[in-house]
């Protein structure tokens, strides 16, 4: 593009650039450098994460641990010196897992490492035993004749691919969301899928699943990748494979909890705010270190790093969303509660993709806001973060309801997700999977982003 500009146009262009006042003053950029240096040396984010995952542990919405996490978050915000700490109600359907087990029965007895998907109904107390019918994809199941799976257990063998941006998750997760419904429509008495996973370990990956009114509810589970390989190999050998699946779980109806919010007030326009955060809930199998203790910890720490150096013009608000895993419930309630003043949000980003390094920065904002975005990108570059100029950021799952309610300027601080789906939603999502140095880089990136968006010469707006 630049090569096409005439010499005269280039001269005018550079004159214009020279004449324009810089968007951020040298003093503001000094603050940025100090925030970055402090954050890169501080253990705060990892300390917060250690506290949450050790003292609370798993945080399934509605459980005693969930309530403990709310108290923990309030206390942590207060001890970090946030100006305002408050709760907003969140409503969600509660579900509990009590026990789960499985075996391959024929052609030979073998253990089956499985986990129930969220919302699954129970099997009878001795489980269900049936022949397995295999499909490679959800689409293949949907296209199959009615009654093809009558009295059988449907198995979907689809394997997600590994990539830095987690693009394999979307196609794989459809079989988790609606596989049980499609299987029941074909007459199945149970649903089993290869875990949405990139790992070689023998942990099964749980995750949200949904039933549909008018379609019979059947028990729904995921099996670990090595077990999935085993089942597929046996069926491909032409063997009749039957399994026993035993799930004891319960839906408890409507429950409630809280989004926990902490804010450092801005000096000039405190009603306007940068929203950063993560979700406080987690699945019950691990301790939710990667998903999403890391997002909780790094957003709390980064707001503190900003406030320690310079209070920006606008507020920095950390929102810890409730019940994300069961269906973005806390985020839906936040969007509804703040519908009337969504234009106070000058930037929003949620970290919910583990704790590996941030490698790219992307916006989704109005055209007139882009010069500020480019200045932020320049200050993130020393952290090895590249700028993606497509201006199509998604902002994180809990921002979906907010984006639906209004025009919000959202940002992605893209994390390296190459290994994320090795641990995601498993018993293996524990603190030891988090590298403190990488978490520091995340917190530094969020701190720089939050400070610059909150202290920018004019408010960033959405598209
Ligand atoms: Zn998450």
Automatic annotation (TrEMBL):
GO molecular function terms noted in the UniProt entry? carboxypeptidase activity; metal ion binding; metallodipeptidase activity
Q: Which keywords describe this protein according to UniProt?
A: Carboxypeptidase, Endoplasmic reticulum, Glycoprotein, Golgi apparatus, Hydrolase, Lysosome, Metal-binding, Metalloprotease, Protease, Secreted, Signal, Zinc, Zymogen
Q: Which SUPFAM superfamilies match?
A: Zn-dependent exopeptidases (SSF53187)
Pfam family membership, one: Peptidase_M28
Q: Where in the cell is it found?
A: Endoplasmic reticulum; Golgi apparatus; Lysosome; Secreted
Top-rank taxon, per record: Bacteria
> Quaternary structure?
Homodimer. The monomeric form is inactive while the homodimer is active.
Can you give the residue ranges of the Peptidase M28 domain? 259-446
Does the keyword Signal belong to this entry? yes
Instruction: Mention one GO biological process in which this protein takes part, according to its record.
Output: proteolysis
- GO cellular component entries: extracellular region; lysosome
| Name of this chain's protein | Carboxypeptidase Q
């Amino acid at each position: 593009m630049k090569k096409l500009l005439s010499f005269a146009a280039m001269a005018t262009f550079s004159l214009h650039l020279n004449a324009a006042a810089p968007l951020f003053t040298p003093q503001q950029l000094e603050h940025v450098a100090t925030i970055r240096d402090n954050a890169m040396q501080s253990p705060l984010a990892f300390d917060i994460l250690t506290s949450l995952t050790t003292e609370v542990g798993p945080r399934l919405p509605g459980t005693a641990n969930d309530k403990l996490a709310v108290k923990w978050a309030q206390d942590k915000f207060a001890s970090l010196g946030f100006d305002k700490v408050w709760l907003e109600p969140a409503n969600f359907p509660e579900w509990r897992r009590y026990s789960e087990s499985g075996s391959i029965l024929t052609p030979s007895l073998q253990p089956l490492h499985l986990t129930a998907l969220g919302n699954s109904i129970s099997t009878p107390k001795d489980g269900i035993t049936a022949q397995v019918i295999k499909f490679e994809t959800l689409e293949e199941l949907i296209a199959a004749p009615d009654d093809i799976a009558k009295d059988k257990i449907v198995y979907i063998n689809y394997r997600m691919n590994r990539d830095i941006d987690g693009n394999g998750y979307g196609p794989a997760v459809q079989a988790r969301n609606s596989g049980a419904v499609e299987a029941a429509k074909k007459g199945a008495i149970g649903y089993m899928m290869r875990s949405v996973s990139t790992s070689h370990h023998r942990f099964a990956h749980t995750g949200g699943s949904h039933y549909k009114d008018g379609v019979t509810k059947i028990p729904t589970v995921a099996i670990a990748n090595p077990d999935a390989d085993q089942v597929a190999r046996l069926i491909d050998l032409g063997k009749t494979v039957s399994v026993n699946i035993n799930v004891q779980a319960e839906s408890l109806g409507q429950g409630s909890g809280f989004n926990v919010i902490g804010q450092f007030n801005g000096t000039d326009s405190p009603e306007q705010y940068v929203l950063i955060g993560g979700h406080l809930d987690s699945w019950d199998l691990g301790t939710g270190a990667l998903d999403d203790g890391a997002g909780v910890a790094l957003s709390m720490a980064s707001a503190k790093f900003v406030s320690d150096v310079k209070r920006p013009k606008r507020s920095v608000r950390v929102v810890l969303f409730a019940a994300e895993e069961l269906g973005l419930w806390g985020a839906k309630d936040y969007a509804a509660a703040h519908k009337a003043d969504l234009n106070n949000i000058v930037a929003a980003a949620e970290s919910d993709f583990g704790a590996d390094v941030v490698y790219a920065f992307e916006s989704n904002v109005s055209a007139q806001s882009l010069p500020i975005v480019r200045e932020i990108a320049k200050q993130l570059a020393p952290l090895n973060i590249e700028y993606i100029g497509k201006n199509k950021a998604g902002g994180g799952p809990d921002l979906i309801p907010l984006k639906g309610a209004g025009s919000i300027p959202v940002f992605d601080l893209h994390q390296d997700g190459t290994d994320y789906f090795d641990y995601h939603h498993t018993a293996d999502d524990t603190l030891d999977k988090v590298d403190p140095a990488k978490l520091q880089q995340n917190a530094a990136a969020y701190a720089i982003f939050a400070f610059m968006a909150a202290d920018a010469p004019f408010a960033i707006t959405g598209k």
